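User: Design a sequence. Structure:
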């Protein structure tokens, strides 16, 4: 019995390591108070919607459930047996499943039960090492203020694990001509499509790799008729199985909202936004590699490649060791191609800022190197293989020691590229919960100037509230960061928000004391100016402090007009980035030159009409496109106004009798009734729905929630006692 246990000690050790990972990862997940952040909430919501649809007992298309960009395959990791509002099980699986799958991929690629024990120990060591990928152990880097871009609940690790298993199965399928492993290849590669849109590329490249290796095998067997027939049969059968599986899943995805043109367009816009805002300089590239692949993995790859090259020379001299040399060479070429493609995809998808997007391709490359490394181990220089073994043993030991601690020292975590002790809770979790759970009569918005655990926690709590209680008025978070619109503060969103969340500035006078024309060079200087402005707000400015701490302050906006005037005074102080000016055209003053230039391009349907000697409509431009019309209003205060509250511009789509078919309103912003700068030309833009057959619009200005005062126009075709000016809608373009 003891001899049998000793002989199977590598397998027993592997099982014990996987068990250790499960126990220790759960120990960390079980004490986390962190809600699902950002992307993780998308998968959390997807699982909620999936199981809600299941419980309704009716047929549904899982691809079309909200969010459609999050495919249904993620549910297998997030909530495979039903939804639970407690996210800790989801968090555990998001880290444990990828680690276990990566280890299993090594076993599938290289393990043979009949191999010598020493060889099986090497394979076990490699399998354990593959589970130490730092990317898998970012349990909430933002909460610990670590330079880690991963956190509980992401699916990139899951996709990486499934992709690695698919690559291992593809190798085993060809080498053993195994129908079972061919089926595993088909299932795992096609399943990648169901995890992330980039899984489509993974599935295609796995299929091409399998076909290339099978063709190499066919070429080697061509001179032997019986062998040629057997290999050819396996090639045709495998190609059909893998191709049909991929095509069926891809067809279902393409015919749904998941891989629809709309989602594809949004995905491209998101990638462009990430690249535009977060493209890393070369000097910071290693910090991302350090927390993704990790230093040990990069060194392992370099030494493994060297060992394979040097060891292959000796192995080729021994015919018994080179029977699969062509396949090993083919796998090596495929590994290089995957590495190259991964680097390209990393750059094109995120400007090198998010290595997690490229990890499936990097790990597939590593898996394809494992069989060659194991086979040539005894032929490579001993010093080289000793270094490789030492790296793997050190990385595995290091991870084990980190996982045994509830909160390892920050310096140790930084050195390891992990965030194992992070992700407990925001320091203001209770206050944020009270804000979200407070009763409200209408929808409310919080504008966040933060980018940390407080912001992530608030966003998640708001999203959960809106998801679980759709019948209640919603509360949402606004911020400058928007993957499709760019990283820009939008004045109208700040002005119309009910709360402002920020880290109090120590230099509270910046927003008020800066000299006119002070430049705002980049987004971070822009944010500093807004935070200094928010920090200087007092009750006289129309705000009330909800809570205040060294790291966060929340203000409740009681008087939007007072805050708006203070905000626009800040805006008039600085020189802003061109993208800021373009995004806030409706909130900034414009010159006569700006106005003249615009109307030369966009001929107005109305112009030069005064309303009650208070506001002049300088120009109204309308562009109709089917059932929607774009509207641009150039307007200007004629004189100072004592009461500036609630001035609005209305656009009525009317029928031939003048009856309102569609009503639209735009609230106008003023700086200060006694400030001459407030009488600058303004631009307000928007879109209106135009019912079929509508040919006219009627416009005007009023103030008060119930239009207590409607301003009289002095020119144009008018009705409603000269308070509406009528214009013809242009033909649809």
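Assistant: Done.
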């Amino acid at each position: 019995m003891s001899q049998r246990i000793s002989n199977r000690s590598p397998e027993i050790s592997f099982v014990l390591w996987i068990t250790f990972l499960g126990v220790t990862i759960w120990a960390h997940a079980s004490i986390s108070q962190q809600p699902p952040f950002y992307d993780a909430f998308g998968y959390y919501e997807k699982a909620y919607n999936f199981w809600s649809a299941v419980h309704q007992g009716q047929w549904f298309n899982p691809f079309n459930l909200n969010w459609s960009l999050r495919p249904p395959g993620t549910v297998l990791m997030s909530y495979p047996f039903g939804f639970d509002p407690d996210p800790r099980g989801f968090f555990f699986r998001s880290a444990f499943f990828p680690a276990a799958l990566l280890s299993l991929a090594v076993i599938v690629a290289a393990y043979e039960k009949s191999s010598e024990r020493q060889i099986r120990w090497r394979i076990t060591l490699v399998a354990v090492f593959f589970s130490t990928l730092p990317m898998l152990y970012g349990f909430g880097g933002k909460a610990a203020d670590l330079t880690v871009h991963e956190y509980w609940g992401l699916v990139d690790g899951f996709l990486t694990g499934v992709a690695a298993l698919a690559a291992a199965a593809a190798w085993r399928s060809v080498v053993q001509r195994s129908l079972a492993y061919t089926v595993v290849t088909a299932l795992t590669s096609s399943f990648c499509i169901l995890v992330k849109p980039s899984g489509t590329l993974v599935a295609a490249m796995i299929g091409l790799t399998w076909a290339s290796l099978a063709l190499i095998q066919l070429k080697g067997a061509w001179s032997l008729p019986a062998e040629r027939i057997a290999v050819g049969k396996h090639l045709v059968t495998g190609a059909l199985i893998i191709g049909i599986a991929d095509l069926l899943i891809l067809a279902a995805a393409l015919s749904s909202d998941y891989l629809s043109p709309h989602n594809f367009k949004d995905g491209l816009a998101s990638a462009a936004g990430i690249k535009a805002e977060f493209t890393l300089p070369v000097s910071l590239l290693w910090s991302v590699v350090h927390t993704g692949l990790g230093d040990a993995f990069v060194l392992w790859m370099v030494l493994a490649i060297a060992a394979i090259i040097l060891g292959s020379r000796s192995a080729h001299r021994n015919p018994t060791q080179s029977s699969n040399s062509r396949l090993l060479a083919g796998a090596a070429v495929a590994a290089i191609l995957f590495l190259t493609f991964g680097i390209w995809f990393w750059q094109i998808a995120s400007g090198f800022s998010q290595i997690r997007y490229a990890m499936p391709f990097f790990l597939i490359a590593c898996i394809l190197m494992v069989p060659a490394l194991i086979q040539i181990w005894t032929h490579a220089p001993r010093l080289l293989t000793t270094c490789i073994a030492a790296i793997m043993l050190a990385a595995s030991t290091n991870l084990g020691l980190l996982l045994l601690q509830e909160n390892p020292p920050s310096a140790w975590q930084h050195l390891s590229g992990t965030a194992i002790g992070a992700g407990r809770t925001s320091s203001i979790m209770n206050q944020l919960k009270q804000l979200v759970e407070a009763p409200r009569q209408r929808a409310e918005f919080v504008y966040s100037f933060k980018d940390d655990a407080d912001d992530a926690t608030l966003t998640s709590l708001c999203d959960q509230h809106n998801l679980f209680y759709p019948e209640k008025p919603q509360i949402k978070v606004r911020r400058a960061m928007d993957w499709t619109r760019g990283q820009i503060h939008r004045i109208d969103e700040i002005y119309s928000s009910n709360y402002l969340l920020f880290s109090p500035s120590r230099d509270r006078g910046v927003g008020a004391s800066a000299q006119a024309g002070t430049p705002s060079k980049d987004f971070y200087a822009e944010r500093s100016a807004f935070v200094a402005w928010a920090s200087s707000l007092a009750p006289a400015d129309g705000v009330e402090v909800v809570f205040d701490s060294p790291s966060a302050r929340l203000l409740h906006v009681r008087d939007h007009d007072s805050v708006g005037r203070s905000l626009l005074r800040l805006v008039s102080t600085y020189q802003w980035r061109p993208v800021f000016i373009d995004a806030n055209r409706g909130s900034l003053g414009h010159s006569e030159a700006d106005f003249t230039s615009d109307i030369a391009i966009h001929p107005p349907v109305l112009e030069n009409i005064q309303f009650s000697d208070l506001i002049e409509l300088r120009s109204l431009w309308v562009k109709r496109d089917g059932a929607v019309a774009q509207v641009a209003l150039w307007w200007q205060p004629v004189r100072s106004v004592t009461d500036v509250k609630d001035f609005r511009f209305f656009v009525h789509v009317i029928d031939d009798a003048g009856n309102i078919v569609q009503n639209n309103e735009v609230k106008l912003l003023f700086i200060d009734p006694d400030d001459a700068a407030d009488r600058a030309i303004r631009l307000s833009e928007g879109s209106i729905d135009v019912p079929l057959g509508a040919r006219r619009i009627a416009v005007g200005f009023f103030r008060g929630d119930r239009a207590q005062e409607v301003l009289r126009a002095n020119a144009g075709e008018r009705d409603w006692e000269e308070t509406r000016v009528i214009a013809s809608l242009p033909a649809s373009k």
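The first strand starts at residue 444 and ends at 448. Confidence is low (pLDDT under 50) at residues 142-148, 508-516.
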